[in-house]
Design brief:
Strands 6-5-9-7-10-8 form a 6-stranded parallel sheet, with helices on both faces. About 25% of the residues lie in helices and about 15% in strands. The protein is built from 8 helices and 10 strands. The protein is globular. The protein is of the alpha/beta class and about 250 residues long. The longest helix is centred in the C-terminal third of the chain and has 16 residues.
């Protein structure tokens, strides 16, 4: 008997964190994320108000929503500035970094590598599992609560790329000189496949969200988290739920 050949659909679904971590019908059910049903009623593609190109939902190069929904998307204010450095080969339409820039436009900037600012003498922190990286909470306890320094970082930097691309970007001397931290482990529900990588490799928007959750816990110890950053996952959740319906995971080919 010849071995069964997996369909492209099955290979796509089963090779992603989206499939492996889909035990719950809605992994976002405990979060306070606004209703996105109005996005389903968007009749046609819109026009980007900046570049005049045809876009659906938002422009992934200008990071603005289309006019038809611009006043209905949630807008999130962040407690810290975030810079995202995106690899030039990262496909704009597939990257989740745009979600952050669209939903938190006052606090998020995206740069295309290698064109990004020099952070010399600036209070910044890089989220990346480099050789010298320490857990964020450990860094916070030493840098914030020690007598040597009470300065908080003014900007947090994320790298948006595949794992292989990110390692090459991290070799840039402008990034290697920055203090580097890692987050606690969280399971991703991202639908893009990263071959041979564990489920703890987060999409960029997931990493930003979980960083803000950790920061909030450290800045407000003992205070119950109110859900104030949950809407950063507004678009991420919308696309996730659409894909669940399209691929009908519960009845996917076995």
């Amino acid at each position: 008997m010849q071995p069964e050949i997996a369909s492209p659909k099955k290979r796509f679904i089963e090779s992603s964190s989206f499939y492996r971590n889909c035990e719950l019908n809605d992994p976002f059910s405990s979060m306070r994320i606004d209703d996105s049903q109005f996005l389903d009623n968007l009749p046609t593609r819109g026009i980007c108000s900046v570049c005049n190109r045809s876009r659906k939902y938002y422009c992934y190069t200008c990071y603005v929503p289309v006019k038809e929904i611009s006043d209905r998307l949630p807008k999130i204010n962040l407690p810290i500035k975030i810079d995202i450095i995106k690899h030039p080969k990262e496909v704009d339409g597939k990257s989740t970094s745009a979600h952050a820039a669209v939903l938190a436009p006052d606090d998020v900037k995206i740069y295309n590598y290698p064109d990004f600012p020099s952070y010399d003498n600036e209070k910044v922190l890089l989220i990346f599992p480099g050789k010298s990286a320490v857990p964020f909470q450990e860094w916070w306890n030493k840098a914030i609560h020690s007598q040597e320094s009470s300065d908080r970082p003014k900007c947090i930097i994320f790298i948006d790329s595949t794992w292989r691309q990110s390692k090459a970007m991290y070799n840039d001397s402008r990034l290697q000189s920055l203090p580097c931290v890692i987050l606690s482990e969280y399971k991703s529900v991202f639908w893009r496949h990263q071959k041979g990588k564990p489920d703890t490799y987060l999409a960029t928007i997931e990493a930003i969200y979980y960083f803000l959750r950790e920061l909030d816990n450290l800045m407000n110890p003992g205070v119950h988290y109110s859900g104030k950053y949950d809407n950063l996952l507004f678009l991420f959740k919308y696309f996730y739920m659409k894909l669940r319906c399209i691929y009908d995971i519960s009845s996917a080919e076995k």
